[in-house]
Each structure stands twice: as C-alpha cells, then as structure tokens.
Amino acid sequence: MTITTGTSPAQIQAAGRQRWTKRRRRSERQRRSERRRSTGGVSQANRGYLFVAPFLIFFLGLFLLPLLYAAYLSLFRERLVGGTTFVGLGNYARAFGDDRLIGGVLRVARFFLLQVPIMLGLALLAALAIDSGLLRLSKVFRLSIFVPYAVPSAVAALMWGYLYGPDYGPFAQLAHRIGTGVPQFLTASHMLGSLANIVTWEFTGYDMIILYAALRSIPQDLYEAAAVDGAGAWRIAWSIKIPALRPALLLCLLFSVIGSFQLFTEPNLVQRLAPNVIDSAYTPNLYAYSLAFTSQDVNYAAAVSFLLGLVIVVASYVVLFATSRRARS
Amino acid sequence: MTTVPTTPSARGTRRRHSNLLLIGMLALFAYFLLPLFWLCVAATKTTGDLFSTFGLWFGHTLSLFSNVRETFTHNHGEYGRWLANTFVYSVVSAGGAAFLATLGGYGFAKYRFRGNSPMFAAVLGSVMVPTTALAIPTYVLFSRVGLVNTPWAIILPSLVSPFGLYLMRIYAQDAIEDSLLEAARIDGAGEFRIFFRIVLRSLAPGIVTVLLFTLVATWNNYFLPLIMLNNPNLYPITVGLSSWSAQASGGSGSDPDLLSLVVTGSLLSVVPLIAAFLLLQRYWQSGLNAGAVKQ
C-alpha cells in the first residue's frame, strides 16, 4: 500500500494552487470582458444557485428551523393548569438563577481548561515527533495513535468504565497484586479527571492527524535554509514548525471548545457506575436532556440548549479573538 | 508499489534516529493501544474469567467464538439488527451528506452568483453551533410530524454537514481548473454534465474525506438516537450496547452474564471503522491536508 508521507500531496497541491491563482487572475479578466459583451456570464453564474440549493434547503430545514424553533419554544411555559403561556424571557431569567445549570457550565469550563491543554500538547508533540524524521517506525505510531478515533465515544466510555472498575479493572487488579490501595477513578474528586482521560484517549489522534497534515505542507526548503544556518531539530520545531501550525492548532482548539461544552456521552454512560457522583445536571447537556425527557419541561430545556449554544459560540469567538490578538502583538 | 523518494527520515542529510523520542512515543503507543488490547483479551473470556483472571492476559478458557455466537443470538439476534441499522444509517447519511456538500461546495467555489459570500459565511458560522443544542428542538419538531421513532429521525439531521461543505469548497477551489471548465463550456457541455463528467472525478479525495468523517460521525452518534428512538428494533449499535450494559450492571434484576457480550459486541462494532480508516488512509489524509492548510 502506498502511504502519503513520501508523495507529499501538499506540495503538489501548493504547486497547483500557484498555477491556479495565476489562471484565476487571467480568467477573471476574461470573464469580466465577456460579461460586458453579453449577459451570458451572469446567467451562467446563476446556475450556481442550482448547485448550492439542495444543501441550503436541508440547512434551512434541519439547522436554522430547529434553531429558531428552540428560540420560540424557550419563550413559553407549560403548566398543568392554564396550559401554555407566553413568558417572554422568563425561562432565561430562571436559567441565570439556576444553580444546577451554572454549576454544570462551570464544571465543563473546568473540564475544558484541564483536558484541552493536555490533549493538544500530546497531539502536538506526537505530530512533531512523527514529522521530525528522527523517529523509527513513524508510520506505525501515526496510525496507532489515530486508531482510538475510530472507536465510537459510547464504546470508548463503556470500555474505560470497565477499565476503571474496582473489581475487575486491570488498574485495580495491579494495585491488588502490588498491595497498594486500589485507585479510585470514580469518586467525586477524581471523576472529572477520569472523564478527561477518556476524551483525551479518543481525540488526541484526530488532532495529531490535523497537525501532521499541516506540518507536511510546510515548504521543505525552509528546513534546509534553517539547517544551513545551523538550526537543530528542536530549533526548527520551535521557530518554524510551531508558528506554521497556528491555523491548524486553532482549528483543533475550536473543535475542543465545542466538544467540551456539549459533553454528554461519556458522563451519561459513566453515570451508571457512579450515580452518586454524576447527577442529572453534571454537564449542561445532561441537564437539558433530563429536563426534556425526565421532567417533561421542553420549554425550559429549549432555553437551556439555546443558552448552551450561545455560550459555545461566545467561547469560540473569545478563543479566536485571544489568539489573533496575540499574533498581532 | 512506487518508490518513496522523500520519506521523513530521508529528509535531512544525516540519517539519525533519536532513542529518547522512540521511548516517549512507545509510552504514547501503550496508552492508546493497551485499552484496545484489553478489549481484545476480554472478548475471549467468560464473564467468570473477566472477574477472576488478570485483565491484560488471557483467561482459563478461550471462549471468543462462543462469545461471538452468544452476541449475535442473544435476545433473537438484536445485536445483528443494531449492526445493520448502524450500517444503513451511516451509509445513507454519509452518502447524502457528501453529495450535498460536494454539490454545494463546488457551487460556492466556482460560481460567482449574487449572495455567494454571505450565504457561505452563514453556513460557516454554523459550524460553531453545537449539534446537541439542536437535538432537543429537532426532537420536538420531528415528534409533531411523526418522524420520531423512524430511521429518518437519525438520517435527516445527519445530512447537513457544514464542515463538509467548507472542506469541499476549499478542495474544489484548488482541484478544479477554471480553464478546464471554460473549455468544456465552449465545447457546449451543460453545467451538470460538466459536474458529473469532469468535476466529480477531480474531487474524489475530498469526497472520500467528507464521506468517511460523516460516516464516523453517524456511526458514533449516541445523543441523537438516544432521544429519537425508543424502539429497540431501530437502535444503532451505540445505544444498543449501552442498553445491554445497563442490563448487565443495573442493580436488581440485572444479568451479569451480559457483561461478556457487551465487551465482545464493543470489539466487533469497532472493527469495521478501523478497517475503513486503514484501507482509505491515503484518501482521507490528502483530503484533510486541504482543510488544515487553508484556514
């Protein structure tokens, strides 16, 4: 099987891109002159609507419509007596005073601050190591670190739940054999770390692949020039590779913001092993789920979902803003 | 197959390997693969051996085959049905999502119609809206029109992949030469003929990438089927395994023998995706390049 490492498709693409931008400039001039002569250019451009329409129709129906519907639902309250009444922003006022919700949001924020630096750090180190040329069997490492991404989150959570288990988990077994105390992964004080470990295990490989793909697209002559100037592998990594990885790192960071704040699968499945530690409001998403399906309070659940979406969008923009400010200074 | 002239190790003039790096990477290797090794070992054990023998080595009896048989026959073979459901949901969703994203990405990349940039910006902005924030309102909407508890409740929401559209737009911009399109137009080919005859082939690596990642997203989906479906016959593998695991460990009336089936079922459910990733790696890796490089 051929592997992409040697063929360096990024180089081919970069070359193609250069060629293409030149052509585009030329063809744009052509098109402008054509448009002046006839209306053919315009009607041809309008054919583009036919290509984007199917996506946009589904986007409107299954993305914007539910979003607007959530906003609409969140403005009402349903009572056993009196039916559904309009309450304006009442549900939001309730949410801002809801300690369980705020506790959940703070918990996932803490989760984000704990887990994401570790995961991105590991992914960055692994990508740099594999790209450095100093590593034997780099292809084997690259694929094996990526493999957990192909394991569904639900399966990963079930599996780690068994691994953490105090009866037959290998950690507990080893501790028994050595004679030390059994590690308590599922207690209140360790739970967030245990969940962070599951998520790190699942997604480090994905981030690594994104970073590795970006590394492969750095022009090779930069390295040669740096080596001529006497830069070693560490220096090249620090001064050339990491700055060039900024956009890819940002992409991973944004995915992590979204993933952390909507944490659901892992706590939902580990809940069974530690029902006293993970309650129904452990994360905002668990809370929205239990509001909608256990308490049957769809209106308030919609408000919570909508607020959670808002928190994620704001957090994403904070990340974008913070990183772009640092780049300018 | 072909010779590889510039492997990473041949890049520098000196061919040196770092042992320190190797040791560090072996530690990572162990972290990422030992849990899966545990899963493989555990799938060969009876529930009794799961409790009584060491987790990272094989038990007294090799019961892999009886475990697999049990997994597929338990409760009238519902595991096989879940596997088939998962397969149908993810293949239909991924095929549909990739088709919509390819068509749209190409349209946004190559046609300068009015409203192109604002519409694209709106779609791109939606990448940040979490899918789970949409799940509950989508559930309420679907329950109004009777789509809850049908396969469509899983497939329809999975057809919209804003990130796939973004990836395909970038990919189409680079992979399709404008001059080629203009030549085809001068020859009198219609726009859709051009798309299906010329464009699709050039976009293949991008399409495989979107296909594979939406496939994984649907295959892995847990939240959406959990809220949309309450008929076990329609469960995908994730929700099914979770329901078995609940039966295996859930206090009174629980069935601990199910434990070995959950483990074996987990292992079997993981195999197809790992195989797909390994077999298609040259496609998705070059496709990811495009997405990661151009931000």
Identify the notable features of this structure and list them briefly.
heterodimer, A: 329 residues, MetI-like fold, two-stranded antiparallel sheet, 16 helices, 2 strands, 75% helix, B: 295 residues, mainly alpha, 73% helix, MetI-like (chain B), transmembrane (chain B), Sugar ABC transporter permease (chain B)
Structure description:
The complex is a heterodimer of chains A (329) and B (295). Chain A contains 16 helices and 2 strands. By secondary structure, chain A is mainly alpha-helical. Chain A has one domain (98-328): MetI-like (MetI-like fold, Orthogonal Bundle). In chain A, strand 1 (76-79) and strand 2 (83-86) form a beta hairpin. In chain A, helix 6 runs antiparallel to helix 7 (138-146) and helix 6 packs antiparallel against helix 13 (246-261). Chain A is globular. Residues 1-17 and 33-40 of chain A have low confidence and may be disordered. With 295 residues, chain B is mainly alpha-helical. Chain B has one domain (77-293): MetI-like fold, CATH 1.10.3720. Helices cover 73% and strands 0% of the residues of chain B. Chain B contains 14 helices and no strands. The longest helix of chain B has 47 residues, at 64-110. Chain B is globular and about 75 Å long. The chains are: A mainly alpha (329), B mainly alpha (295).
State the gist of this model.
With 329 residues, chain A is mainly α. Chain A contains 16 helices and 2 strands.
What is the count of distinct domains of chain A?
1
Low-pLDDT runs of 5+ residues of chain B are 1-14
Low-confidence stretches of chain A: 1-17, 33-40
Number of helical elements of chain B: 14
- Mind summarizing the main beta sheet of chain A? 2 strands, antiparallel
Rg over CA atoms of chain A? 26 Å
Q: Strand order of the main beta sheet of chain A, please?
A: 1-2
CATH secondary-structure class of chain A: Mainly Alpha
- CATH top level class name of chain B: Mainly Alpha
What is the SS-derived class of chain B?
mainly alpha
Globular, elongated, flat, extended or rod-shaped: what is the shape of chain B? globular
pLDDT averaged residue by residue of chain A: 83
Q: CATH homologous superfamily of chain A - what is it?
A: MetI-like
Give the proportion of residues in helices of chain A. Answer: over 70%
User: Looking at the chains present, what oligomeric state does this protein adopt?
Assistant: heterodimer
Largest interface (C-beta under 8 Å): A-B, 120 and 118 residues
Count the DSSP helices of chain A: 16
Distance between the termini of chain B: 33 Å
**Secondary structure category of chain A:** mainly alpha
| Binned strand content of chain A | under 5%
The CATH superfamily of chain B is identified as MetI-like
